[in-house]
């Protein structure tokens, strides 16, 4: 985290333990906090101001199952509100072996999310950009 001493981590969908999803963890005496439950969370990042996190998924966010069950070489890029845990889908891309993992990250100013957009049929990988929705004032 940039705004606090700690990190965001995913309790991976293949884990037998639960609940799975996005957690905020700290090296001091604060307990880990489940920010947002998710059965397919894979990689994550947090915005510099700590307002948003982003995760990619092992399979479609809305598909039944967890981890790689029913994944179909699909990954969703999902914005997570760190205060409420609310999830907003931003994009869908292909996912399989390296280097076609989306691994989303925020731009330094927090205005967009960058991720690897891969094509398993050709092996091509490109960086894609999706804007972060701005709240209505």
Fold and architecture overview:
With about 140 residues, the protein is an all-beta fold. It has strands at about 5-10, 20-25, 35, 40-45, 50-55, 75-80, 85-95, 105, 110-120, 125-130. The strands form three sheets. A four-stranded antiparallel sheet has the order 4-5-6-7, with no helix packed on it. Strands 1-2-3 form a three-stranded antiparallel sheet, with no helix packed on it. It has a three-stranded antiparallel sheet with strand order 8-9-10, with no helix packed on it. A hairpin with a 6-residue loop joins strand 9 and strand 10. The mean pLDDT is about 90.
| Fraction of residues in H or I helices | under 10%
The main sheet orders its strands as: 4-5-6-7
Q: Rg to the nearest angstrom?
A: 15 Å
Number of strands: 10
Give a short account of the largest sheet: 4 strands, antiparallel
Count of runs of 4 or more consecutive helical residues = 0
Q: Could you say which overall geometry the principal axes of the C-alpha atoms support? A: globular
The overall pLDDT, averaged over residues, is 91
Residue fraction in strands: 35-45%
Uncertain segments = none
What class do helices, strands and sheet pairing give?
A: mainly beta
Distance between the termini: 26 Å
Which sequence of SSEs, written as H and E, runs from N to C? EEEEEEEEEE
């Amino acid at each position: 985290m940039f705004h606090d001493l700690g990190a965001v981590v995913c309790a991976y969908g293949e884990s037998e333990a639960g609940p799975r999803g996005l957690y905020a963890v700290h090296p001091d005496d604060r307990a880990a906090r489940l920010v947002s439950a998710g059965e397919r969370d894979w990689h994550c990042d947090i915005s510099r101001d700590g307002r948003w996190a982003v995760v990619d998924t092992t399979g479609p966010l809305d598909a039944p199952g967890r981890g790689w069950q029913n994944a179909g070489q699909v990954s969703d890029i999902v914005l997570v509100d760190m205060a409420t845990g609310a999830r907003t889908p931003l994009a869908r891309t292909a996912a399989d072996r390296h280097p076609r993992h989306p691994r989303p990250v925020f731009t330094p100013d927090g205005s967009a999310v960058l991720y690897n957009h891969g094509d398993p049929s050709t092996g091509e990988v490109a960086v894609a950009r999706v804007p972060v929705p701005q709240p209505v004032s």
